[in-house]
Amino acid sequence: MKTLSIILISMFLAVFGVIAQPLRVDMSNMDVQLMRDNDYVRLIGADNDAIFAIRINENNDLFLEQYDSQSKLQQSVNQLVLPSSNGIQATFLEMFYLDGKLILFTEVLNNTLRQKDIYVQYISESGQIVGESKRITRFEGENVGSEVITELTQNKQNIFIHYYHPFVKYNQEPFYFRVLGSDLEMKYDKGVQLLPMADKDFEIIDYEFHRTGRVYMLAKITPEQRRRRSRGDVQYEYELLLYDIDMKDVESFDIRADRYVLKDLMMDIDYDGNVDIYGLMSRKNKEELEGFYHKKFLIETKEWARGDSKKENYVFDRSETPFFRNERVSELLDQVYNYSLKDIIYLGNGGSVVIAEHINHWQDSTVDPQTKKVVYYDYYKYNDILLAYTNPENNMEWMRRIPKSQWSYNDYGKYSSFYVTAQADWIMLFYNDHRKNIKNLNNKDLNGDNYKACRIPERIGIPTVVSVFSDGDVTGYEMLSGKHKKYKIVPEMIKEFNETYYFYSKRNNKVAFGSFDIILK
What we know:
Layout: H1 2-20, E1 23-27, E2 32-33, E3 39-46, E4 50-56, E5 62-68, E6 74-79, E7 84-85, E8 88-89, E9 91-98, E10 101-110, E11 115-123, E12 129-140, E13 149-152, E14 159-164, E15 175-180, E16 186-192, E17 201-209, E18 214-222, E19 237-244, E20 249-255, E21 261-269, E22 275-282, E23 289-298, E24 303-304, E25 314-315, E26 339-346, E27 352-367, E28 374-390, E29 396-402, E30 406-409, E31 419-423, E32 426-433, H2 436-442, E33 454-455, E34 462-469, E35 474-478, E36 488-489, E37 495-497, E38 500-507, E39 510-518
Parallel strand pairs: 30-33
Antiparallel strand pairs: 1-39, 2-39, 3-4, 4-5, 5-6, 7-8, 9-10, 10-11, 11-12, 13-14, 14-15, 15-16, 17-18, 18-19, 19-20, 21-22, 22-23, 23-24, 23-25, 26-27, 27-28, 28-29, 28-30, 31-32, 32-34, 34-35, 36-38, 37-38, 38-39
């Protein structure tokens, strides 16, 4: 009987251990000593053999570093050689690792000719240019200020490039959409006129390129001066723009919230090409946020999906509104409602989750009494995370507030904010937090009253994983263990390649690379 009890207890502990930690983490056994004023700025990519990262030093020189994917040990360090054109040194724009190839985008600005060229080229593992540089585009005159955005496509197999020339009021200036393969050949190259936007003052706040060859754009329109109200904030208008390569034209669809004013919008596209648009909303001429806005656009019928009209949006109830003025987020009264939409995540059950985060930023200065020199400090606080869930029937079911308070200065919030991913029917959030807050999460204490601040400059806090399930249940875990338990992660540099997640962690001047797999699926 005693033997049976021991077996049952062992089985229970084994099961509990799996539930309590859904990650299989693999860390380097040997840390890298980082020199003063050096830091990593990009995690380029990884495969079964190598991890590539870019480090910057105190002189702003860039170094390409390679790590072994299995051992996480450093394999090579080489200065990244940037090309030049007509004696002008190029500047770094972006870098990708696709199909075993390192692909570098650079910019060459000629102020004398008022000319800017964008190039792409291969880079060797030793940081050297391979072959000839290929010019993507050239900007001249007043268009030199144009910005080129490069990002991986949804399937992570190609590079989506988009840009346009600046304008005050739209006069049919073309928007350029290009898709580049790992062979550096253009698979898709279009200059498109957004005819529905003629004579409007607008900006495109979100782009998505879908596998079907469609480009989705979210436009934020500033109303004409005579239509603006004399008091209160400008009430922007929004439109969904759809460009189909087969139709060769642009269609527009109004985005409206009948009783509310939209404060912030973002979109994402599901596998079939349907669009989920989320936003924050308030009442007219009111500062307070009222809830989350949601619309789903069906690509086949080109109509807005319908659900329960009472659950189309999520309106905050009386029990939730007091937490918008919790002392964690009310240090600056003019930034109490400074929530920013961060991401939209799709779940395996067909539902989706929108994620918002509260952010504070302010600046002050001190004067050295001896030298009279003024020293400026930028302060950053990344606070509570809000998640709102829409079920497969297009009804918004619940919202959860994940309390946190990440405080730092002069680091641009490098160790703050979070990384998010989804597995099956749950969301996983990764961020640095005070270890005592994990207990509060698991006790379902989500009002934040008993939470402690994570002060990044003093390195108080540990990497934390929070799971939020489709039924709204929340649990928390410590991410790392052993000698790396107190190392900090940089959330924006967690990258997923082929279902394995790669990251780097740091404590003082020690750096350790790692990876993890999610073992509960």
